[in-house]
UniProtKB/TrEMBL annotation:
PANTHER family: 3-OXOACYL-[ACYL-CARRIER-PROTEIN] REDUCTASE, CHLOROPLASTIC, SHORT-CHAIN DEHYDROGENASES/REDUCTASES FAMILY MEMBER
Protein name, UniProt field: SDR family oxidoreductase
Keywords tagged on the record: Oxidoreductase
Family named by the database record: Belongs to the short-chain dehydrogenases/reductases (SDR) family.
Ketoreductase domain residues: 5-211
SMART domains, per the entry: PKS_KR
InterPro entries: KR_dom, NAD(P)-bd_dom_sf, Sc_DH/Rdtase_CS, SDR_fam
Native organism: Acrocarpospora pleiomorpha
Length: 257
């Protein structure tokens, strides 16, 4: 359980981040949902679980905004226990020869600089307290490159590596730093990118969902609830000895270290 803990979850308004927010709130944590747009309707649903949650509009690409988010959280609640750097964007699926500088900037800025900004802001706080948790959302594609997704692969490999280095730095302060590497997950991002993935203008989402599930040993796509469950375990006391890990969460879609 996460009773009394205070958590920040970036990209928490929908998709995998929403799954983390819901699980943390259900386990008794107070959650600050940080996303480009406010998440008021999600907050309304969480409030019955008792926490005094908040929603903050933040662009993770801005160090100033991420530093401000952490300072605001400390001033609202007097503590910060968990930071989940989950906000991320997919690339367009273009091959390297066709990629634009603008796409490079977007994918690397959100997926790497955004996670870095969150890690740095959290590390400055966690260095001064006996315990902390940083959880970064990477991807199995950070371990296994896929043609057409060079920028996304590179960005997620960077997240895994950043996570490992920070785990080495923060171990002596009682802070663990881990990344979660989801497989193909059913989220708004996946639905929005489906036309590009499958080369159809109006793909039948349910049909493609079943097809995707058929390629996964567990027989289904992953969801935010799966990420929420793993994040809650990493955030809790049972995972005190787990740090520097890049944990696959793929239903068997990807089986490697
Ligand atoms: N869906 C998948 O199959 C999958 C697989 C592996 C990893 N991931 C990773 O999981 C994370 C969440 O993915 P998702 O599928 O839930 O995506 P999503 O697009 O459904 O949700 C992402 C959220 O992040 C927010 N966000 C994007 N850019 C932001 C920024 N600059 N500042 C603040 N918030 C921002 C969005 O507004 C959105 O609410 C991402 O890091 C993604 O790369 C997703």
């Amino acid at each position: 359980m996460l009773d009394g803990r205070v958590a920040i979850v970036t990209g928490g308004r929908r998709g995998l981040g929403e799954g983390v927010v819901r699980r943390f709130a259900a386990e008794g944590a107070t959650v600050v949902v940080a996303d480009l747009a406010p998440a008021e309707s999600l907050l309304d649903e969480l409030t019955p679980s008792g926490g005094e949650h908040r929603s903050v509009a933040v662009d993770v690409r801005s160090a100033e905004q991420m530093d401000g988010l952490v300072q605001d959280t400390l001033s609202w609640y007097g503590r910060l226990d968990i930071v989940v750097n989950n906000a991320g964007v997919m690339d367009s699926g273009a091959e390297v020869a066709d990629l634009t500088d603008a796409e490079y900037d977007l994918v690397l800025d959100v997926n790497v600089r955004g996670v870095f900004n969150g890690c740095r802001a959290a590390a400055r706080v966690f260095r001064g307290q006996p315990r902390g948790r940083i959880i970064n959302t990477a991807s199995y594609i950070g371990k296994k490159a896929i043609a057409g997704h060079a920028l996304y692969s590179a960005s997620k490999a960077a997240v895994i590596s950043l996570t490992q280095a920070l785990a080495l730095e923060l171990g002596r302060y009682g802070t663990t730093v881990n990344s979660i590497c989801p497989g193909t997950m059913y989220t708004p991002m996946w639905v929005e990118k489906l036309p590009t993935f499958v080369g159809e203008e109006n793909p039948d989402v349910e049909q493609w969902r079943h097809r995707a599930a058929a390629g996964i040993p567990a027989g289904r796509m992953g969801t935010g609830a799966d990420v929420g469950a793993m994040a809650a375990w990493l955030a809790g006391d049972d995972a005190d000895f787990v740090t520097g890990a890049a944990l696959n969460l793929t239903g068997g879609e990807a089986v490697f270290f």
